[in-house]
Amino acid sequence: MIPISPARNMIVRPMTLEDVPRVREIDVLSFSLPWSERSYRFEVAENPHASCWVAEWVHPDGRTEVVGMMVNWVILDELHIATLAVHPDYRRMGIARRLLAKGLQAGLERGARLAFLEVRRSNLAAQSLYRAFGFELSGVRPRYYKDNFEDALLMTLDPLTPETITVGERESGSFTEQGGEGSIGCAKCAQ
Ligand SMILES: CC(C)(COP(=O)(O)OP(=O)(O)OC[C@H]1O[C@@H](n2cnc3c(N)ncnc32)[C@H](O)[C@@H]1OP(=O)(O)O)[C@@H](O)C(=O)NCCC(=O)NCCS
């Protein structure tokens, strides 16, 4: 059973190799073009530009469960949100907002000064999430997605500042964060 108040029942921490099977499960439930476990392992263990995060739910009996994930690439002063998803049973509880705030904060600390992503034109939920952080439409990639040739909208947050992150996470409650920078941590938003 999912507790009603999420605020004190979730942590955001760096993704580990042990998380990958569960991350892949969430990916398959969330996207028509999921990544392979191998791709995730590469991002976590080998890609020096990647920053990978999970949201972990803490149940009342102390059992924990990964319920959300995010992978970013930070190259020079640009942060590319590669993938972000929350398990369907845990959506609309502020988890993506919290993950995004953490990922952007970590990117800022690594030198990123702008953030961008591609999102399906039909994905209004994700677009709304990103707009809450100040992301704006900056371009269109026609017929970008391989499964149905849907357009991708390019959304950009420029500049990326601590203030923009604060504004975006304002309504997210008081989740706990753990860990520092993702070991190295994926463009599903781009798939
Ligand atoms: C998009 C997604 C990550 C949002 O996760 P979530 O944890 O449910 O989002 P949150 O609860 O943190 O919501 C934050 C904001 O996003 C927007 N939002 C989220 N889901 C929404 C929905 N179904 N309809 C409209 N707006 C939505 C709202 O602005 C929301 O703020 P509010 O609750 O104050 O109204 C989740 O729906 C998901 O995993 N979707 C499939 C994968 C995906 O599309 N990833 C993004 C690829 S670019």
Automatic annotation (TrEMBL):
PANTHER family: ACETYLTRANSFERASE (PTHR43420), ACETYLTRANSFERASE YPEA (PTHR43420:SF44). Belongs to the acetyltransferase family. RimI subfamily. InterPro entries: AcTrfase_RimI/Ard1 (IPR006464), Acyl_CoA_acyltransferase (IPR016181), GNAT_dom (IPR000182), YpeA/RimI_acetyltransf (IPR050680). Residues 10-160 form the N-acetyltransferase domain. One of its GO terms (molecular function) is N-acetyltransferase activity. The keyword Magnesium does not apply. It comes from Anaerolinea thermolimosa. The gene is rimI. This is Ribosomal-protein-alanine N-acetyltransferase. CDD domains: NAT_SF. Keywords: Acyltransferase, Cytoplasm, Transferase. Pfam families: Acetyltransf_1. Transmembrane segments: none annotated.
